[in-house]
Write a structure and sequence with these properties.
The chain is about 35% helix and about 25% strand. With about 260 residues, the chain is α+β, with helices and mostly antiparallel strands. It has a domain of about 180 residues: Superoxide dismutase, copper/zinc binding domain (Immunoglobulin-like, Sandwich). β1 and β2 form a beta hairpin. α1 runs antiparallel to α7.
Length: about 260
């Protein structure tokens, strides 16, 4: 008889824990997400957003931007984009312009955002060696990029420890000083400085939620309504456990009185 009493109590206790901590099982197998807002560098006039989500050994990277340089040599302006790593996890300001030409070029910005860890190409290799593969990067003033691939260990570690930075390159030469507009790229002297200078930058940080909440608690909109319901379920589970425990205790006392 005692075994029969304890089983419902154990079941109720298990239910209460599961209901009170509804996300505990999902947290063990969930993915990791990082995101950033892309801010303009070198007065590029652009803006954008970027995110990175780990799923096992795969990473899905999305980059969207607008307002960047439009054309280059009668074609869409190529905008090389990378995950920079092993720096300070920051974006440089204009004080990083060491030679005073009005442009923070890629090497000048490296103390802040680090070296290239991953090239966010549209196809093929994603390693640092593809950093200047301009034909395999998005082109034109606007882009919506998404690609899933295996992220190399160095880049993955840098993103997770807070030193992963998304940088999009390519400036409109007409907006630069004469010195900068006529300068060669310090990365490849076959390209102009404008082609490789950074235009957008954002340091990746861990996402706190899967989606931004919408609506208030009083309307039941967004994620707050679900959280309220989870707490209610949790309290209900505790009440169930308490009721089962009280019932079991009363039954034990009754049986003890009958036997004495």
């Amino acid at each position: 008889m005692q075994t029969k009493i304890l089983r419902p109590l154990a079941i109720a206790g298990t239910l209460s824990l599961a209901l009170f901590f509804p996300g505990s099982a999902m947290a063990q197998g969930g993915s990791e997400s990082f995101q950033t807002t892309l801010e303009p560098l070198n007065d590029s006039g652009g803006s954008g957003q970027a995110s990175l989500q780990f799923n096992g050994d795969q990473a899905t990277v999305t980059v969207s931007y607008s307002g960047l340089a439009e054309t280059f040599q009668d074609g869409p302006f190529p905008h090389a984009q990378h995950i920079h790593i092993a720096g300070k996890g920051q974006c440089p300001d204009q004080s990083f312009d060491e030679n005073g030409d009005g442009v923070v070029d890629t090497p000048e910005g490296q103390p802040a955002y680090g070296e290239i860890g991953t090239s966010l190409t549209t196809e093929g290799d994603t390693g640092a060696d593809s950093g200047l593969a301009v034909e395999r990067f998005p082109g034109g003033p606007n882009a919506n990029y998404e690609r899933t691939f295996e992220l190399n260990q160095e880049s993955a570690e840098s993103v997770r420890n807070g030193t992963g930075v998304i940088v999009v390159h390519g400036l409109d030469p007409s907006t630069l000083s004469d010195e900068a507009a006529n300068a060669k790229s310090p990365l490849d002297d076959s390209l102009p400085l404008a082609a490789t200078a950074p235009a957008l930058c954002g340091a990746l940080s861990a996402s706190q939620m899967g989606a931004t909440p919408e609506g208030g608690a009083d309307t039941g909109g967004g994620s707050t309504a679900g959280i309220e319901n989870e707490w209610l379920f949790g309290l209900g589970g505790l009440a169930l456990a308490g009721a089962a425990g009280a019932g079991a205790l009363a039954l034990r006392r009754r049986e003890s009185g009958e036997q004495s």
